[in-house]
User: What shape does this take?
Amino acid sequence: MSAVRTIARQPLGRAALAVLALVALLAAAGGRLAPLDPLAQDPAHLLQGPGGAHLLGTDYLGRDVLSRLLAGTGPSVLAALEAVGAAMLLGVLPGLASVRFAPALAWASLRAVDALMTLPFTLFAIAAVGVLGNGLHQAMLALGVLLAPLFFRVTRAAALGLDRAQYVEAAELMGGGRVYVLRAHVWRKVLPTVAVTTAHALATSLLTVASLTFLGIGVQPPAPTWGGMLASDLGFLSQQPWAPALPAALIMLTVGALNLLADTVRDADPADGPALDTPASNHPADTPKEQADARRPAHA
Amino acid sequence: MPADPPTPEPSPGRPVLTVDGLHVTVAHGRTEAVRDVSFTVRAGEAVALVGESGSGKTLTCRAVLGLLAPGVAVPAGRISLGDTELTGLDERAWRRIRGSRLGAVFQDPGSYLNPSLTVGRQLAEPLRLRLRLSRAEARRRAVDLFAAVGLHDPEAVHDRYPHELSGGMLQRVLIAIAVSGEPELLVADEATTALDTVVQAEVLELLDRLRAERGLALLLVTHDLAVVAEVSDRLLVCYAGEIVEDGPTAEVVAAPAHPYTEALLRVAPLGARGRRELAVIPGRPPEPGTAGPGCRFAPRCTYATDACTAAPVALDPVPGTHRRSVRCLRAADLALQGAAAPDRTPPRTPDREPDRTEVPA
Amino acid sequence: MTVTTEAPTPAPPAPAAAATAAPRLRIRGLDVAYHRGEPVLSGVDLDARAGEILGVIGETGSGKTTLARAVVGLAPVTAGRITVDGEDRTALRGRALRAARRAGAVQYMFQDPLRSLDPDLTVSRLVGEPLEIARVPAAERAERVAAALDQVGLDGALAGRTPGRLSGGQRQRVALARAIVTRPRLLLADEPVSALDASNRNHVLRLLDRLRHDLGPAVVVISHDLDSLAGVADRIAVLYRGRVVEEGPAEAVLTEPLHPYSALLAASAPSLDPGRRADLALLRTPAARPPAASGCAFAHRCPFAGPDCAPRPAAVEPRPGRLVACHRAPDWRSRLAR
Assistant: This one.
């Protein structure tokens, strides 16, 4: 993976990767790392501050906040991935296809996207949940559908610029088909754009879980998620003003790392070429073979 | 215009541009790309800076125009236009000088014009502001200038947009804009490189005519020796950031004193219309900052000796000549081959073997 | 001498069999027009034989690039036939066109390798791309890529570089290697040297010359610059506003042009010849008129044009092997001397 290596070469990219690795670790093993049962209520210790048996305190039902944060990582991240995965599936492939294939398809998909973009998100989420039943998966699927136009447009715009690139024409002249051109030439150029969009979409999804919880959509209590915790903690601001800061910090840290990563991916875009003030790097000297060749007569 | 090699030297006009000991560094001072370049362009004189890419000719030209990219600096040397010292001017003073006393044309004329304004307006507007002319008066002046640069139907051209004109016409418009401020010096940086052969010849003639009629000093910057062999009075051959040969064009072309000049003449298509030898200069110029202490051309030079690379080689007068100098240790003992003007008896009787495969009937 | 040179070797006389055989590329009555607009090419007849370099020269807008693009099916042909080794290329559509392209018998070298080479791919991948598309097995592909790089004089050490890390001359040779890796029978090179300095220009021209000897394809070199053709072309066709106005052996066309436009081109090229300016003055018109819609395409810029130039001139062969389309061909030169 040359992309990962490019990112890891930059200090900010390294930091972002480290944070995301930590989040991934928590997502995979968070439940097992939890010191207490995240669902166990302790009516004797409601809304406690940090310290003692509960390292980060308890919530309004006396549940251990640290355990809930740890256990909530997995579902939160998974939900965000689910939404973004659905969005990519529905956005990127049609976006690429709309450029390289039949104009009728392009027209139809553009109209579909326009229609989707006019839908107010909340209304659509409520409708989706109403049809599919209330649950995190259903809500995230709805979110994925609504995020798809973003991917569609971004992918299409990037691919559209490449469609008339001369190397694409050259590949067609060699008899390369549409799928070949997509695979060999277009995909690599679109990838950085898609990566940036993905990072932003993941961040949006994490935050959306919180806003959906306000409406009682998606997160089913008592299951912990970051967004759900943030929503419920906000209800007890007067008693525990600092409590929302904990899930908020985790969300911000993850979102920040994703944005940083996205920026690094974009800046490492090889199409930008080498920096201007290092002329030596892009002017390699003649190799001995070339020098010998220059001396060789044209007719051997 | 040196029509024949033994042209008597034009009486030297007053110096317009004087570059003295110019150094240019790139990469924020880390790399020296131009070293100790000195030359003078006099009124009515055309001086050509010739060299491959990376020879420092473009940086020198940009330094003269005060158009250096970020990270590029002039740490030493003086550039003066008439009595005005140009080095160390602030951006406002530069703009004033460039609008009036210095004109410039570049390779890609289209990118220097605003696509949404007529070309006439782009010429007339600055004229109107600078000379406080009425609109009608400015328009008349603009049309006159368009006519002076050889644009057919200048009235119509005045109201055209840049995209409606061909590359050659755009270059003429740019030249009209460049000379509208009555500059003392006109800098042409690869100004004819992208043009068609016929148009290139016309634009070169136009520059030559402006030089003759207006006493303009011309600084022509190009990689193509063939282009300037005919229209320049003086040739400065640049190599790896240094001037390696300096002298009257006709003399340099007929009898080069530096092996690099000889090589350039060999590869240049100077009028040989037959199957010419396709000569190649092996190797490539050193990257800026990587050259050794001695002659920078030595690694590519078949005449090089150990002495050539040992110590810096000075730009010395060529023995037995007037106003010629060369940066070569062996200049005195080499008999280098120049390019001769072709015999005027062809095209009727080609003196070459008819070595073509005739098309089978 | 710093400069390596070689005695220019004349192209070997074509074998008797080849001389009588049909030309490799044959273009007859070719018309090209975009969007039912003014024709870009009209009535073009051209031949290129195996092992021969045909130079096509013309100014911007003369249709020279369109001519090459028409041969590879990238321009809308409205009339005429283009055959390569007798096989009609204009009729190819869809699957047949794709199959023909994969076979790689005809290769088109784009003008600017910076744009026609994908900046993200390595040299070896770029050169091997035609073979990859044609599903040539990887082992054979690697072998042929190495051979092609060797033929254009590029070191194998460059194989892992991307185009951005090559010099202009190297990039042009990568484009050439990619064009010959399929062992084409016809190679069309669009301005292969116009962006290069004189030394690199000669280097690439020498490669083209050597390749047609070693591999024997017909080569069509398109250029706006007569000097890049003077070195290598065997024959030259002069294109003006979509029509071939003159065609013949290269040196003859350049030193003794039969068409006033060819003469103007030849006299405009940089030269040390002091008499050139005088010729130029006689070959130019004081004021160009707008071009006529029909008739001789050059009449509006021709100092020799008269009222009898109104019909479109047919190509005639005043001398064996030389074609010219000009009503004034027999007598304009005598008026030049005056």
User: Anything to note?
Assistant: Residues 178-214 of chain A form the longest helix (37 residues). Confidence is low (pLDDT under 50) at residues 270-286 of chain A. Chain A has one domain: 2-37+53-282. Residues 50 and 57 of chain A are 4 Å apart (CA to CA).
